[in-house]
Write a structure and sequence with these properties.
The complex is a heterotrimer of chains A (about 250), B (about 230) and C (about 300). Chain B contains eight helices and no strands. Chain B is mainly alpha-helical and about 230 residues long. In chain C, helix 7 packs antiparallel against helix 8 and helix 10 packs antiparallel against helix 11. Classes of the chains: A alpha/beta (about 250), B mainly alpha (about 230), C mainly alpha (about 300).
Amino acid sequence: MNDFFKLTASDVDFYYGDFKALKNVSLNFIEKEVMALIGPSGCGKSTFLRCINRMNDLISGTRVDGSIVLDNVDIYNDRIDVVNLRKKVGMVFQKPNPFPKSIFENVAYGLRVNGIRDKNAIAGMVEKSLIQAALFDEVKDRLKDSALGLSGGQQQRLCIARALAVEPEILLMDEPASALDPIATQKIEELIHQLKKDYTIIIVTHNMQQAARVSDKTAFFYMGELVEVNKTDTLFTKPEKIQTEEYITGRFG
Amino acid sequence: MKYHLQKELDKIKEKLLTLGALVEDRVYKAVRSIESKDEVVAKKIIEADNEIDEMEIELEEDCLKVLALHQPVAVDLRFIIAVIKINNDLERVADQAVNIASRVANISKREKSEEFFHDYSLMEEKVEYMFVKSLDAFVNMDVSLAEKIIKMDDEVDKLKGEAYDIIKDAMIKRSDQIGYLINFFLISRHLERIADYATNIAEEVIYLVEGKIVRHRDEYLYKGKL
Amino acid sequence: MNEAIIDTLKLEYTNIKSVNEKVLLFKDSGKRRRTIEQLFFMMFKVAAMINGLALIVIVSYLVINGYQSISFEFLIEAPKESMTKGGIFPCILGTLYLSCGAIIFALPIGIASAIYINEYAVQSRFLNFIRLGINTLAGVPSIVFGLFGLAFFCIVLKMGVSIIAGSLTLGIMSLPVIISATEEALKSVPDTYREASLGLGATKWQTIYKVVLPTALPGILTGTILALSRAAGETAPIMFTGAVFFTQTLPTSIFDEVMALPYHIYVLATAGINIELTRPLQYGSALVLLIMVLGMNLVAIIYRSKLRRK
């Protein structure tokens, strides 16, 4: 194992039933870096992302081969508690999905389910997370209001705050801005830049400009294979593989 | 299927080549006028420079438009960057052709007594070759040709050095004709500048194809490759 | 005139003619299609209107015939003089007891089953068997439930004719309705809620308890109240198990027998001492039952919209 990497995926194969969705993917993640996963629909990038917090476990008939090692522990080890893993690896989804609860309760949710009872501690963590997610100033006067009354962009930042509240080390983002307007998108991207200081971020995106703007490294997936991983500026100015070149310049297929 | 961006890029390439052909023609005429000392041709070159300036601006605007609207990446991005730089180089080459033409116009006004003549034909030949071939290298994305052009730049510099020595001697001998001789010397300098721009274009070609910036990296060419 | 010009004009003319014909053809087919469209639209509209009409006819028939017999005394007094006079209070109370008892029994089991089926169970033979059971239960005629209740609860379990036996019978009959309503409500909770909760390190049970159930609650409650109102109106399941023809005392424990509205109406209309004489009482009772059932539906609707808004 290499201490240098926060997260190491080695020879990961993934099956939906008989369909092999990931083929021999090996990818390393450095702590406090942003890695963007790009590729056409169905290339396996989201599947890979959901392997990292074992969200794919929820789908019956799936199977993973190979290993994903987080802080020197194989997360597919039988003794791993998935619940603890998911505390360590937070996730933000494509569509903003706040619970139909108050703003405060949304952020406090992760703390409550993890057994924190102290009211002051919860209030402090909620405020801290909202500040981190750059949402606090906008909602501080209406924490008791329903989260569903927020705008799409605010809801997504609330979801980020909710994920941050449980103090994860890795943040998975599955197309976090695809349902948002350009201004809200810009805010999310700015947020990613801020969060990079404290978290290792892995973001799936269909928007190549977005990948180029927010990430340090970019990995290009195609047909379940990892075609190329490179520093983002290199990948977008002189990619090594012809498939990457064709995809990012839109000459695909 | 041709993509919208690809069509735009094709148009830009076409325009750049048109500009290149025009500039080539200017250089050819300017160089010929050195020997013929043809004042009329020289005047025409000077007057027609507007046309090239306008084309340069138009092409630059096209490139900026593509950058803003299509946000090209990878080879497309390198292509646009190369075109912007080559466009700039071409305009300057055309300026040098104008400069040569002004020197020729000056020289041709001199009295008969000012008989000095230095033969620039070898230098002219090399410079023209470099310039024409640099555009060929761009069209064909020919890296080895581009490398050859970059190497030739030294030869041209050497020829300019020789011209300097000869004209310096002539100035000592004919101190009454210094003005005429300065004009004559400047032609070598303008030619040398054209060779420099041709070298720049060749470097852009290497960047376009390989994504490597070879400017200011002599070792890449002399130690590594050749 | 030049012949070439004439030829061109002719050609142009024919072109114009054919174009016009095409336009006309197009118009024709458009007209026909619109007629068919309107015909079908009308058919569907009529079909939908029949529902509303049926309700209006039934309600107004009952109101017209029954409103005179309804009075305060009618609602709070017991039947008198061999049920030819007096009120229906014991019946209202009995119906409330029976249907509430049914819900107390059926709600937890129904919700638990639905959660198991929808959230925990994986596709298997066992699951298919359970589904088959629920679907069959939903299709069993209510008189069969009544006989089953009589045989099992009253005789085997020695409960006799009592509130509890009637409630259990009604409860079993309501189970499929509650289960399918709950299942629908659970299915309508977006999966992204579950994913978000699990992604925050919640266990499955925490996810269900804290996110899924609260979100599904309006749907579950609506389904439950509808099941309750159905149960309140049933006669067959209770006529052997919980309801009796006539009793002089109000029930004091769950092992007592009761009178119930639907059964009371049935008795008055078919087996009373003087059927013609008690007509107004029959209409009055039916109207009360209808108001109770509609009232419960109304509560369900209001409650659901209130929760939705929140």
